[in-house]
Design a protein that fits this description.
The chain has 297 residues and is α/β, with parallel strands linked by helices. It is built from 9 helices and 19 strands. It has one domain: Alpha-Beta Barrel (TIM Barrel), CATH 3.20.20.370.
């Protein structure tokens, strides 16, 4: 497997935590920190056009509050997963009942918007506690991308003890020894160029390389505010260079669910010699296959 997972967090503009509230706000541009959504909507349009141009099926992790304000037609042909309701920090929410209520609302919102239930999750702020991950299968969610992992030649996703497939975002060191993540955030802030991410991706020989960004970051900088038309065009061109460059490395654009299916197919056709554990999905009734080394680790 050599997969490129293009992932996008569809959430409120320049989200910031608000003390004393589970719901996030937006960076103050002169009118307070109430949530804004216009940059996210504009950024989604740019990304949808770019993905269509490059024939990429992406995975969008949609915050429910933003999704309700979004033209869901722009997500047609792409995978849509869960990203909370109001960009909550799940690690700060006390009580399983409240977490379940948020997940239920988020799942129902995605299903209502795109016509099918979500199968993947990314926690806001990339922060998720084990309790949250453990309850994902209750909602039919079998994939999580809420974690970073060290960049390596092999990035084969692994199942957790919760029987959730972990497809993390890689991070490592650039040519100068500085920390780099496959989130494109610094590039949108003009602090990195496409070559940094291409160099990073070139390390992977097998597995799933996850690129991540935000819709709003296509047209708004956290530090500088709204981008000019020229800035937004350069920003989009840099994203194009990253995606085209990685695809030129013979990595196939894949959704998170595509990766899960490919792993299952590989396990079904693997040579005999290792024990395989089967698990019936209580939602779909399908049999999932797992590595029995997971239990031993």
């Amino acid at each position: 497997m050599r997969a490129l997972c293009v992932t996008v967090d569809l959430d409120r503009d320049v989200n910031i935590p608000i003390p004393g509230s589970n719901a996030a706000g937006s960076a103050d541009r002169g009118n307070g920190t109430a949530p804004r959504f216009s940059s996210s909507e504009r950024g989604l349009s740019l990304l949808a056009d770019l993905f269509d141009e490059l024939s990429i099926k992406a995975t969008f992790f949609a915050e429910a509050a933003t999704l309700r304000r979004t033209d869901a037609g722009k997500l047609s042909g792409h995978e849509v997963g869960v990203h909370g309701v109001d960009h909550e920090d799940f690690t700060l929410i006390k009580g399983a009942d409240e977490k379940r209520a948020i997940l239920r609302e988020a799942v129902d919102t995605v299903k209502d918007a795109v016509g099918k239930p979500p199968g993947c999750f990314r926690s806001p702020y990339m922060k998720a506690d084990q309790e949250t991950i453990d309850m994902l299968p209750e909602f039919g969610i079998r994939i999580d991308s809420s974690r970073h992992t060290e960049m390596a030649s092999s990035l084969i996703p692994k199942y957790t003890d919760s029987r959730v497939l972990d497809i993390p975002v890689p991070e490592g060191r650039d040519a100068g020894g500085k920390k780099i993540s496959a989130y494109l955030w610094p590039m949108h802030e003009s602090k990195r160029g496409p070559e940094d991410y291409l160099r990073m991706a070139s390390v992977m020989e097998e597995g799933a390389f996850v690129i991540a960004t935000h819709t709003w970051h296509m047209v708004e900088s956290r530090e500088r505010g709204l981008m000019s038309k020229d800035e937004a065009e350069r920003n989009a061109d840099n994203v194009r260079k990253v995606l085209e460059g990685i695809m030129d490395m013979d990595m196939r654009p894949s959704t998170m669910t595509d990766v899960r299916k490919e792993l299952a197919d590989e396990r079904r056709t693997a040579p005999l010699g290792g024990k395989v554990i089967g698990h019936r999905d209580p939602v779909t009734g399908k049999i999932e296959l797992f590595d029995d080394n997971k239990k031993k680790g």
